[in-house]
Design brief:
- The protein is an all-alpha fold.
- The chain has a two-stranded antiparallel ribbon with strand order 1-2.
- Helix 44 crosses helix 45 and helix 45 runs parallel beside helix 47.
- The two termini are 82 Å apart.
- InterPro entries: ARM-like (IPR011989), ARM-type_fold (IPR016024), Cohesin_Scc3/SA (IPR039662), HEAT_SCC3-SA (IPR056396), SCD (IPR020839), STAG (IPR013721).
- This is SCD domain-containing protein.
- GO terms for molecular function: chromatin binding.
């Protein structure tokens, strides 16, 4: 190796220069070391980061100094040109580089041994050719395909070849790009230099490539061999451009001209592989040119400084040295000019056109490359002319493109020296960025935009309202968005802290901590109000935000229904403040510092303060004693609302701090919990004293003990403090009536009872609590002999209601049956008797006693459940067990009597809330004691089997009536919340004329309004908190009734009342109705009761459509949707929608005939009363019947068809063939015809076995489609009977079949109303069936007698002809018999 190096001194100097540009190439490296370096660089290099050569190059240039950097640069330009022509040095280099390989004469093959040796085991060109169908005849392409190839050597060899034989070398490069496009065609030296023929040559290549169905090209292929191709191609182009710039061939040869000519032309190709690959090559070359241009700019700067230094040092006597620098400067300017031309050519020729390509991948490539250019060459590309392209694609429909655009901007605002040139771009596209951050559909895009806006805000380029919009994202529903906005909020918080501390000259560390907490609290208030305002603006009523909505709590729960409070779910749920704490935990120091937060909250912020809210605090007497000597500076003095939110923040911070150490080291978790418990042992009593009068704040304080290690009270021998904590909690439980406070108190009490080491204290305290409850209950009713009719003052009612609420809350978590039955040996009334007496007052119907009665009912319900839990199962029960069971039965019967009276009784004047509660308890108790629920899976009876309970039929019907009343009440509430413009929608449809042209217009108008109303109902429900609570209560009643049906306590037939309102009351109610469909499926096929299915389906469809007839619901869409759902209960599907089991078709026929009879009576009534409007609505009922025709065969369809004809004849209704009103009936009749024809048509062809299977498949598919589509599928199923059309023997059949096609076209296009089309419709349908008959019986011409033999429709045809003659009386076109039919036949033939 040393000999080779000593013989080629020029090459060593070239390598020293390469080291200056490429630090990963060493002077003394052998070929193998260079390959390893290239491989390492390949692994590190990524298309999403800067190339490693750029910063290293800049660093080397800075280290060398001005003279050493400039000295070698002019010399390669002067010395390399002649060397390239003589060819001497390359001959000396070849033995060095191919020392271990077999030397060959050709230059292009001289690079193959290098690649083959490097990847001898891993790279096989022949194998790759077979896999990819891309020929391996190009050394450059093979090098990029070979993961272990030395790309630096490949680039050097190519430049060497370029200097000696420019034509073949450039052809080799272009052929490499063609291989990368998946094209096996090649160009020679002459073609590559023929710039005028480039387009023609490419056209030839693309034409041959179009012959392949899906040509493989590396950039998009999923083959493993192409996994690293993109990275290798990028590295090769980068090294090629860098080396050519270093050697000077970039400026002196035709390399760039040829490359630009071919790549720009290929980037506009219609073939995606050409366009995509050429765009990637152009972008990669542009990226490499940015590195070179940035280095040349730095070189020019250094030369300029050298010139200025030389002038200052020697003055006017400098002479020769100054001329030398002038020459360098001119040479650098020349290179800069050429580089600027190269850059502009690629941008104008490729980027400007491809950044808006139809392919989103190509658009994303362009935007990603622009991001690299911003980073590598900011002096040129950080300009409005280039930034605007990124701004424009921020609105791209592709998520990938938008994400790349945002990533491109992320590095832009990190370059502070160019911020001045970004102001115009920022102001122009800032609204779009904020819009993306707050509302983009893709989470990744939102997170990236938030990071960009945080960088923008660091340069103070956002307005105050824009910053506020960004800060509101701490309350976003997406956790990643909340976390991403933490950095942004940190900047806002730090600014406010600095501004607040400006009044203090030398703030201490504690001042900074407390000021940070004050700022955090004020920001929470500010953001909360802004969010409330935003929510209020989006509401339909616009009433504004509630005063309590700043807090994450549930507000004043005293006035709410007890069931609504259960919406809170877990007591440790995350509210607004908890979400903000979670988002800012790692960013804002004050958020994670729970100790400082606790200290600030323990201070008295009202003492001597003038900056408060101006209102009386109501707790000054307590806080002054606690906070004696604690001075509160105005810098961190908290307002009322800030203190409330910071108390929530304290709870969230303690919870998060505890969760942070879960699963950590054993000692760390124990240490954090111990520190927290010690601090709370001291501070918690003071918090109870300070906030005991505020129910919202004390509700949060009551949750803090859940985070403590109660065993430390025993370890620290602080049992008196633990007893005091018990007293504090029970005091809040006994003094507050808020359901939220009561619930949190009971949860904390349960936490106390779970501490087994403190059992003695816990037992004493819980007995004291029960005694206190017993005393308060008896004191509240003392002195009244007849509680049922006694008069209570308002305060007494509130007190009794609060006691009942406490008992109900405590009984929900603790067995209090002994306490309830305790009567002290008969000396006084027990709690059960007192509660029963209170419940007796429910019949009075006093509104102010409603919640009291509800709580009392819940107490007795829980008592029955707890007592049932204590039942035992023994063959020989003891006397105590028998007495226990008898007592339970007696109490249950007495409670049941009141429940039935209040829920479904007719004599009592019960309030609505009491009715609802009584109904739910009635259903739940019947589910608990239902005979079907008293047996386990192993047929073992439960202890409650001896007390099974059943509901008689009369009460079941009353319960169904109660559900109907609840549905109507909720529907009225929904109607009140809708817009007033929808109320008069039915008025516009009153018209005295039955004009055929006006009818479709009105139908369209009605259809246009229906979805609007349906869409707005759930929207308004979501927007109003009160509507949400109403929906929750309503769904609670419905789900209880549905649960009773599933358990068997209520008969399945009563489920029709739920199904009848499907699609009317919102999506949640619809989900409940779908469960009823599952119950029907199980009842019909699992339990073998198809008659019940017939009854329920018939009743549900009738009731649903009655709402339409009574103008309660607009349009039949809801009933059609119900019909589709009910049709799914007729069968059970398995894998791939195969029918596993189905109900017998006779029951489906029964449903159809029952409904046809019902609608026939309705039509007859409307016809007799001359009620045209109602008759028009009733005709749409036939659309409802279509989805339920699934799984029927031809015989069933014939029965239904005959019954329909009979019903219409009995109703004396004229079915007008030309009327748009009767389209539903014609569609229904056509569907029946399709069912009849699909089973019989294959028999005429003599291929029973094969065609019958096909028909079965068609039937299954058609049944599935019929549940989704309407009439569109019907046209597809008419193909089998239309096969005999070409037979010339049946002249009358052909027009009939053509007419059938016309009918299908007309059915599919309801908007095109042609009178003659409507004339032909029934005739065409009838003749299809006649054709089927003619096929079956070979005769020359089908006779009329054969038609009734098949379908019995001869009389119907005669009636249709009579109707056609009188059609002009109804505004239709005059009937012309076969003439109009012939016209239609000719029209259809022309269309074909």
């Amino acid at each position: 190796m040393s000999d080779s190096e000593s013989n080629t001194p020029g090459k060593r100097r070239s390598q020293r220069e390469k080291k200056t540009f490429k630090p990963f190439t060493s002077i003394d490296q052998s070929k193998n070391k260079r390959k390893r370096a290239a491989s390492d660089a390949e692994d590190v290099d990524s298309g999403l980061e800067d190339d490693l050569s750029d910063p290293a190059d800049n660093q080397v240039e800075e280290d060398e100094g001005s003279d050493d950097f400039q000295a070698p640069k002019p010399k390669p330009k002067a010395t390399r040109k002649p060397k390239a022509k003589t060819g001497g040095p390359p001959a000396a280099k070849k033995p060095r580089t191919t020392k271990a390989a077999v030397p060959k004469g050709a230059k292009t093959t001289g690079r193959k041994p290098r690649k083959g040796k490097g990847g001898d085991d891993a790279f096989d060109a022949t194998k790759i050719t077979k896999e990819t169908k891309i020929t391996a005849d190009n050394p450059l392409f093979n090098a990029t395909m070979n993961p272990s190839a030395a790309l630096q050597s490949t680039a050097e060899d190519f430049l060497e070849s370029l200097s000696q034989t420019p034509g073949p070398a450039q052809a080799e490069l272009i052929n490499c790009i063609l291989r990368a496009c998946g094209c096996n065609d090649s160009v020679d030296a002459d073609e590559v230099m023929d710039y005028d023929g480039v387009v023609d040559t490419l056209d030839t290549f693309t034409e041959s490539l179009k012959q392949e169905n899906s040509p493989i090209y590396p950039l998009t292929s999923k083959l493993p061999v192409f996994k690293k191709f993109r990275k290798s191609l990028s590295e090769f182009l980068e090294r090629l451009i860098a080396s050519s710039a270093e050697l000077g061939s970039l400026y002196t040869s035709d390399l760039m001209a040829t490359l630009q000519t071919w790549v720009i032309a290929m980037s506009s190709s219609q073939i995606r592989s050409f366009r995509h690959t050429a765009t990637v090559v152009a972008l990669e070359v542009e990226t490499a040119l940015c590195d070179v241009a940035a280095a040349v700019d730095k070189e020019a700067e250094i030369v300029g400084r050298q010139r200025e230094g030389e002038r200052k040092r020697k003055g006017s006597k400098g002479g020769g040295r100054e001329k030398e620098f002038d020459g360098k400067a001119a040479e650098v300017r020349e290179r800069r000019t050429k580089l600027a031309e190269f850059l502009k050519e690629f941008v104008d020729g490729v980027f400007v056109h491809r950044y808006r390509d139809l392919d989103s991948n190509i658009r994303a490539e362009c935007v990603r490359a622009m991001g690299f250019w911003f980073k590598k060459y900011p002096g040129h590309f950080l300009d409005g002319a280039y930034l605007r392209y990124v701004g424009w694609v921020l609105s791209d429909s592709s998520t990938q493109v938008r994400l790349e655009a945002v990533k491109s901007l992320s590095s832009v605002y990190q370059q502070s020296e160019y911020i001045g040139s970004l102001n115009h771009f920022t102001e122009r596209f800032k609204p779009r960025l904020i819009e993306m951050a707050t509302g983009d559909t893709e989470l990744a895009v939102r997170v990236a935009v938030i990071q960009v806006l945080a960088a923008i805000d660091e340069h103070s380029l956002l307005e105050e309202d824009e910053r506020e919009k960004m800060c509101l994202l701490v309350f976003d529903e997406e956790a990643k968005v909340r976390k991403a906005v933490g950095r942004f909020v940190k900047g806002v918080w730090e600014e406010d802290v600095e501004e607040r501390l400006t009044a203090k000259k030398k703030p201490s560390g504690k001042d900074k901590e407390r000021a940070g907490i004050k700022v955090f609290g004020s920001l929470l208030v500010k953001w909360g109000r802004a969010l409330d305002k935003t929510v209020a603006d989006t509401r339909a009523d616009g009433d504004g935000a509630d005063k309590e909505s700043l807090s994450s709590g549930e507000g004043n729960s005293r006035a709410r229904n007890p069931q609504v409070v259960s919406l809170m779910g877990s007591t440790m749920q995350k509210g607004r403040t908890a979400l903000a704490v979670e988002a800012l935990w790692n960013e804002v120091d004050s958020v994670s510092d729970w100790e400082s937060l606790l200290d600030v909250l323990l201070l008295d912020h009202s003492a001597g303060g003038e900056e408060g809210t101006g209102g009386t605090r109501g707790r000054k007497g307590h806080t002054k004693q606690v906070a004696e000597g604690s001075a509160v500076d105005d810098v961190w003095r908290l307002e009322e609302v800030e203190e409330s939110l910071l108390l929530e923040a304290l709870l969230a911070t303690l919870t998060r701090a505890r969760a942070e150490v879960v699963g950590a080291k054993k000692g760390e978790e124990e240490s954090v919990t111990s520190d927290m418990t010690r601090a709370l042992i001291k501070g918690l009593p003071r918090l109870f004293i300070k906030y005991q009068t505020d129910e919202n704040r004390i509700a949060n304080v009551l949750l803090i003990p859940l985070l403590m290690n109660l065993d430390m009270y025993l370890e620290m021998r602080m049992m008196a403090a633990y007893a005091s904590l018990w007293d504090d909690v029970t005091k809040q439980f006994l003094s507050h009536s808020s359901l939220t406070v009561l619930k949190h108190s009971v949860v904390t009490i349960c936490h106390f009872l779970s501490a087994t080491s403190l059992t003695n204290t816990n037992s004493t305290k819980i007995l004291e609590l029960e005694d206190e409850l017993s005393s308060s209950l008896r004191d509240a009713v003392a002195g009244r002999d007849e509680i049922e009719v006694a008069s209570f003052t308002e305060d007494e009612v509130l007190a009794l209601g609060a006691i009942c609420a406490r008992l109900a809350t405590l009984a929900g978590t603790r067995d209090m049956t002994s306490w309830t039955d305790e009567d002290e040996g008969g000396k006084q009334s027990n709690a059960w008797d007192i509660m029963m007496a209170i419940i007796e007052r429910g019949r009075l119907g006093y509104r102010e006693e409603e919640q009291m009665i509800e709580h009392a009912l819940n107490v007795l319900n829980l008592h029955i459940i707890w007592k049932a839990r204590g039942l035992t199962f023994a063959a020989d029960p003891s006397a105590d067990e028998i007495q226990y069971r008898d007592s339970l039965k007696e109490q249950r019967e007495s409670l049941m009597e009141k429940l039935v009276e209040y829920a479904v009784g007719s004599q009592s004047n019960t309030a609505e809330g009491v009715k609802r509660t009584a109904f739910q308890i009635l259903m739940n108790l019947h589910v608990l004691f239902c005979p079907t629920e008293t047996v386990g899976p192993d047929d073992a009876s439960f202890p409650i089997a001896s007390l099974s309970l059943s509901l008689d039929d009369e009460v079941q019907y009353r319960c169904a009536g109660f559900i109907q009343a609840e549905i109507e009440r909720y529907a009225e509430e929904l109607d009140e919340s809708t817009a007033s413009d929808h109320k008069g929608s039915n008025v516009n449809e009153t018209s005295e004329s039955e004009d055929e042209e006006a009818t479709p217009a009105k139908g369209k108008k009605g259809k246009g309004k229906k979805p609007t109303k349906d869409d707005e109902l759930p929207v308004n429900t979501k927007q109003s908190r009160s509507n949400l609570e109403q929906e929750y209560l309503f769904i609670g009643v419905i789900s209880t009734f549905l649960r009773a049906i599933r358990a068997g306590a209520i008969h399945v037939r009563h489920g029709a009342v739920l199904l009848a309102h499907y699609g009317r009351l919102g999506s949640t109610f619809d989900e409940c109705s779908k469960i009823m469909v599952d119950v029907l499926r199980e009842e019909g096929m699992g339990n073998g009761n198809p008659d019940v299915v017939v009854s329920v389906v018939t009743q549900a469809i009738r009731d649903s459509f009655t709402l339409v007839l009574d103008n309660i619901v607009e349009g039949e869409a809801h009933t059609v949707a119900l019909s589709k759902q009910l049709a799914s209960s007729f069968l059970i599907r398995g894998a791939q929608l195969s029918v596993v089991r189905r109900i017998d078709s006779q029951y489906i026929v029964q449903i159809q005939t029952n409904l046809l009879t019902w609608i026939g009576k309705r039509l007859a009534t409307y016809e007799n009363n001359k009620n045209k409007k109602s008759r028009k609505i009733a005709i749409t009922f036939f659309r409802v019947l279509i989805p339920m025709l699934a799984t029927l065969d031809s015989r069933d369809a014939l029965k239904i068809k005959a019954h329909m004809d009979q019903v219409l004849a009995q109703a004396k209704v004229e079915v007008l063939a030309t009327s748009k009103q009767w389209e539903p009936q014609r569609a229904y009749e056509k569907r029946l015809g399709n069912v009849m024809s699909k089973d019989k048509a294959p028999k005429a062809k003599g291929r029973k076995s094969k065609t019958s299977k096909n028909a079965a498949v068609v039937t299954s598919d058609e049944d599935e489609e019929s549940e989704v589509e309407g009439l569109m599928e019907a046209t597809q199923t008419t193909a089998p009977p239309a096969r005999p059309r070409p037979r010339p023997a049946y002249r009358s059949a052909a027009p009939a079949e053509d007419q059938d096609h016309v009918t299908e076209t007309d059915d599919e296009n309801h908007d095109e109303v042609v009178g003659s089309d409507l004339h032909v419709t029934p005739q065409g349908r009838t003749r299809v069936i006649a054709t089927y008959g003619s096929i079956k019986s070979p005769s020359k011409s089908p006779s009329k007698k054969s038609q009734p033999a098949v379908n019995g429709t001869y009389n119907a045809q005669k009636r249709q002809r009579d109707e056609e003659e009188s059609a002009t009386d109804e505004g239709g076109s005059p009937a012309r018999g076969t003439q109009s039919s012939d016209i239609q036949v000719r029209r259809k033939r022309v269309r074909h």
